[in-house]
Each structure stands twice: as C-alpha cells, then as structure tokens.
User: What shape does this take?
Amino acid sequence: MSEVQQAAAAQSAEPILVISHLAKKFGSFQALKDVNLAVRAGEVLGLIGPNGSGKTTCINVVTGLYRPDGGKIEYRGHAIGRQRPDELARLGVNRTFQVPKPFKSLTVRQNVEVAARYGGADLGRADVQELLEFLELDQRAEHSAAELTSAQQKMLDLARALATRPKLLCVDELGAGLNPEELSQVATRLRQLAGSGLALLVVEHLMDFVDQVTDRLIVLSAGKDIFSGLLAEAAQDPQVVEVFLGTADGH
Assistant: This one.
C-alpha cells in the first residue's frame, strides 16, 4: 500500500482515540478546559501550543498519570480515564517522556525486556533484538543504560514503550535536545511506525520536526483546542498566530 493509500485508509477508519471536552484541574488552576481531538490508526497527530497550554497534561491524562475532572476519553470505542498506566499499557496505550528515566543499573536489553513483561507483551529475544536494531540500539544492548547518551536514552525510552506493543503511542517532546541528523532519523522512525498502523499523538515544539512527522495537528491555548488542520494552515490562522506571537499581525 502506498503512502497516499495509507493516509486515505487512516482518514476513513474509525478513530482509535476520541477525546471530548476533556478537563483537568490542579487546585484552582484549570490546566485543561475543553480539549477535543481524534486519532486514527496509522495517523500521526501533532499537539502543539505555547508553554502552559496543556499539551503534556493532556497526554498525562490519556495515559493514566492523571485522572480527568471532566469530559470523556474513548479508546477503541470504550471509555477510559480511570485506569492506571499499567492497565492502559496492557490495553495498548503507552507513552514516552520528556525526560527518560530508564533503569540505569540494567542493560539496554534488560530495560526493554522488563517493559515487555510489564506491558504483558509476548516478546521473544528475537523480537527484542529486532526492536533494538530498529532504533539503532543493538550495538549498545549489553551496556548499562547509564552509559547511553541523552539521545540514546530517548531511543531507549521509545523502545520500552514499543516493547508493550501499543496501538496508541503518545510521544512527549522526543525531539528536544537532538541534533538535526538525529531529528531526521527519529522522524523517519515515527513515520515508519505510523506506516505499520500505529496511532501516534505527538507533543512537540520544534516546528520543522512537526512538519516532517505529523499528518495534521491540534493547537492548544490555555487548555482549549483552538485549531485543527495542517501546519501550513495553522501558520495562516489569525488566532494561532496571536497565541504564538502575541498579536495577529505578529507585533
């Protein structure tokens, strides 16, 4: 199937994740007020916005770190929102973190094997090896996670998430701190994952990376979604321009 056919199939399929009027408070602070989005299998949906707009809070709620205070989250047609992260991982929902926290005393391979067991995935040694090769960690497989560079730790974090065989993967600023070559490699890997049928919700602030990776995007501002569409269209939207630049004319 060509990329065009894959994109058409993704658009015609039922969403794997639907968020409706999602709300989350921390004390008196309303982090999420009214977030609405949908992601389909094989689609990469970007979630962008200025600092404090609610991007990471949104995926923290989706992946069970926080419980929602309002609205609805449906995964594969079933309401979620009260499950723990480990329960969601077994259902097929997992994520990466802005700051990876591997088990530094374990080897790279052991980190992936632990994640597979935790997530209930039946990964054999060959499966783990294939995953390590896919993310170019195979040459470091028997090294401790503490020996990895920051970029390699991000790839290990991604490997651990993928080891649970998710259907929906939330990616939180995976590109932060990577050089242009590393960004290009990561973008290629994420597009390959989408091509295999994985749904991805990607939080990112690097617009070139967003443009490479996403099929479309949602813009958040003060806990609300204010735009849905392509990055090129977002750049022409007065409300989006105002949110990022302060005024609609950029001054």
Q: What stands out?
A: Residues 3-92+167-245 form a domain with the Rossmann fold fold (CATH 3.40.50.300). The longest strand covers residues 29-39.
